[in-house]
Design a protein that fits this description.
- By secondary structure, the chain is of the alpha+beta class.
- The protein has helices spanning 8-20, 39-45, 49-52, 57-60, 66-79, 136-157, 167-184, 198-205, 207-224, 248-263, 292-308, and strands at residues 24-29, 34-37, 83-85, 111-119, 125-134, 188-195, 230-235, 238-244, 267-269, 272-274, 278-284, 314-316.
- A hairpin with a 2-residue loop joins strand 9 and strand 10.
- Helix 9 (207-224) packs across helix 10.
Length: 320
């Protein structure tokens, strides 16, 4: 065979390989007309090569984000460098259905895309190749892992019995709000409260009845507080609430509303009707609080005053 002579057999196996690979392959000219459209593209799009050849890609595939794709492709034409995009940046270029049984939860095929310049003999780029990789398995597994990690993170911050923030998470929010309020000179109040004579509930009706009382208390708390307020179970029968942008007088309105709702509540458990009350201490953040622990201690001191003076009431912290 003479030098430069085309070997038909070589072209045949090369074309056969391009048709059979499990990667989408498209070749576009400068006008975005399709010159090559392999079997992967035909199988997933339902459009045969004979139909789409010499047609403008955007006319035949209207779901492609044309402006984005042109900008990406133009950089390849002009700079003669490849361009890439991964599924985290853009889930797909072609809206193909997902047929993989393992990752059947995905509605569409996640794709990584590579655009490559195809140099001519005069070193100009008159065509580009577009490679489409099916990365659905990788994407779905990563998404599931991230969702699982997110759930674990939430569980690590949540009190199992009440579904409120647990002590560690709530104290973290308290420290954050303390720093934010001090820095921005914002008003904020913290409330600490507990269930009066809770030991008597456990001793009389059992610990499971006590758990039901705690659950009902947390439910009434959630119904009474605002979406911007942050509640947590501090431990045992004790709860904490951060009242953002709230002074002590308005905090007292909140605590009295909650106290009265709980006073009117009856928890029924195994035929027993259980009545209970709560005592609440309020502390508005002041410059006297050098740490968020000081702020918390002040509300706890106000709570102690409630217990010493008869319980079932709210008390605002007063500096000595």
């Amino acid at each position: 065979m003479q030098t430069g002579q085309v070997n038909i057999k070589d072209i045949h196996w090369l074309m056969n390989m391009l048709q059979s690979i499990d990667v989408g392959l498209i070749v576009l000219d400068r006008d975005y007309k399709v010159l090559v459209w392999n079997s992967f593209m035909e199988n997933h799009s339902g459009i045969g090569p004979a139909i789409i050849k010499d047609k403008v890609l955007f006319d035949e595939c209207p779901t492609i984000p044309e402006d984005w794709f042109r900008q990406k492709a133009e950089s390849v034409f002009v700079l003669k460098n490849s361009a890439f995009t991964v599924w985290e940046q853009r889930p797909y270029l072609f809206l193909f259905k997902n047929y993989r049984p393992i990752t059947g939860s995905a509605d569409y095929m996640y794709q990584n895309i590579t655009l490559i310049p195809l140099l001519s003999a005069d070193n100009e780029v008159g065509h580009i190749g577009v490679l489409i990789y099916d990365v659905t398995d990788i994407a779905v597994n990563k998404i599931k892992l991230e969702e699982a990690n997110k759930k674990l993170a939430e569980l690590s911050k949540t009190d199992h019995l009440t579904q409120l923030n647990n002590r560690g998470a709530w104290e973290g929010y308290l420290e954050r709000e303390y720093k934010r309020s001090i820095r921005s000179n914002h008003i904020c109040s913290v409330v600490m409260f507990d269930i009066d004579h809770f030991k008597n509930v456990n001793d009389t009706y059992g610990h499971q009845a006590g758990d039901e009382v705690i659950r009902r208390t947390s439910a009434l708390l959630k119904e009474t507080m605002r979406l911007t307020d942050i509640a947590g179970r501090y431990g045992g029968e004790e709860f904490g609430v951060i009242l953002v942008d709230t002074n002590s007088e308005n905090a007292l309105i909140f605590t009295e509303r909650l106290r009265k709702r709980i006073e009117d509540e009856v928890v029924e458990y195994e035929g027993n009707k259980i009545k209970f009350t709560i005592s609440l201490g309020i502390s508005q953040l002041s410059k006297d609080c050098k740490t968020y622990q000081n702020w918390l201690e002040q509300s706890d001191q106000a709570l102690y005053v409630c217990k010493e003076s008869g319980r079932n009431k709210s008390e605002i912290y007063k500096s000595k």
